[in-house]
Structure prediction request, 313 residues.
Amino acid sequence: MKYRKLGNSGLKVSEISLGSWMTYGGYVEDDKSVKSIEQAYDLGVNFFDTANVYERGEAELVMGKALSAYSRDSYVLATKVFWPMGDGPNDRGLSRKHVIEQCHASLKRLNTDYVDLYYCHRFDPETPLEETLRALDDLVTQGKVLYVGVSEWTAAQMVEALSIADKYLLDRIIVNQPVYNMLNRYIEKEVIPTGMSKGISQVVFSPLAQGILTGKYRAGASVPTDSRAASKSWGDDKLTESTLAKVEQLIKISDELDIKVSQLALAWILRQPNVASALVGASRPEQVTENCAASGIVLSEDVLNSIESILQG
Prediction:
């Protein structure tokens, strides 16, 4: 496993990190979740991601229980705040009240004294940015949070946050968590350039486009009965003829390189120096093993050009 610095900090995280969205505490059985976490740790993954809203705290409980088997200083733990955790008017957003209360609730569920990274899960237009940043800075001062990040913020929102933090000497955000994969590249235009210039890394989620870039779904073939697409309607607009045709071409490249197409997709993401880590999900340990093998794969310029031709086609 290779490691990269997280933003303009001294913290190093594994190029492949393990998340718990749509899995732990939900449709994946707890024992499989724990085994996936154990496998990741054994393969050198030191970066684990969850959020309070994932199954309303259940994912944090599973993650905390599994990681309790390891020395706390041996891994980097991230969770998030923003989405509703109740029906009350203050049970959501980035107000000082919600940020502080949810941090305490997450720490309790995770059974830890601190989280290494605390994300603002989305931007909150209803709360003054200074209020949110001061609340986060207080949590850092108290030692309950070590680093601060955001998720799916625009370049302009991150720049504004840095400006306020610098003006009032508050803790600066060092990471953004956006969606990024071969089929969704919106961050290349503004977010990555801003991150490069301002010391904000990207920790990207959905790097395999929710399974589309694993080769699980093939052109002309039926959707696997044990896949997410078989039980949910999300695949109706994603598994298009054009997309599946691109995947077939990508599979040819991966076969020539003697790697999995999922590993090709992850290595392609990690070509970006501003990406600190690709956040993967796993419903079984074998998926973790396959994904972790992508760390350290360097794609040649010719391969990258071939991939670009496919994606632009």
